[in-house]
Amino acid sequence: MPSRSDQHRPDHLVVLINPTSAKGAGAKAGRRAVAALRAAGIDVTEIVGRTAADGEQRAGDALLKNPEAALVVVGGDGMVSAGLRLLTAEPECVLGIIPAGTGNDTARSLGIPLKDPEAAARVIVEGHVERVDLGEATVGAGTSAEVVRRFFTVLACGLDSKVNDRANQMRWPRGKRRYDLSMLLELPRFKAPAFQIRLDDQEQTSECMLIAVGNGPSYGGGMLICPQARMDDGRFQLTEVRKISKPTLLTIFPKVFSGRHVNHPKVNVHHAASIELRAEGVSCWADGERIGALPVALRTLPGALRVFRPAS
Fold it and tell me: What is the value of pTM for the model shown?
């Protein structure tokens, strides 16, 4: 594998801005970041799409015209997913992130400043680049409906996917409190599915409240669901919460913000490079976006992405 880190101060950037992130915060953060990048002497192609698809298309065209350029996305984890799609065919292109979304878990995992576009821009200007792992999810493997998606942080299913379904339909509250409220609304009617789980070459069946597969440690705006997950070890952390009473789950849930939930006897942690999950009527989400219904096959892609991040 190539070196995990190097220096790459960019001469040209394609900056893709989501103007609707965090109710318009993306547009403001984008303007501030672009101004800081240009002030540092970097040539910037700024793209604000009329729609998400339009922005991706235009950014892709700009990268084709400027093959030496790096890509910067301004927004939340959904914009990072857009960046991954754009760079699937360009593995040596470097990705920069200006966080301006609700969760920002990718930026949080990389140590990028969350509420300071100029500081996030400085990370790019300084040009410290590291290779990080990605997760790859194949939903409906072997069928005409097969979907392959790369993800950066966490893929979740079970109660998590129900909570995400509801949270993404809510306009209030903002941030992680939206997920807290969605959890309280979904929990009363939730029943733990029976999961078939394959971890590398081992198989098991478990009734689980939720399963989270982490390439990175957090989701939902800082919930450390997979606190031991690292983006440089070629493995996932799988966190499974076995079937428990709902009052017990509510006592465990607040501990997810510190990662201490993994100490509960009904919470199991596993590490594996490849994972398969099967369950009836269960969907999965990754990086805050719905991917599809199980079954899903997961594998790690070691060192698959080059990113700008602060030097340690």
Answer: 0.90
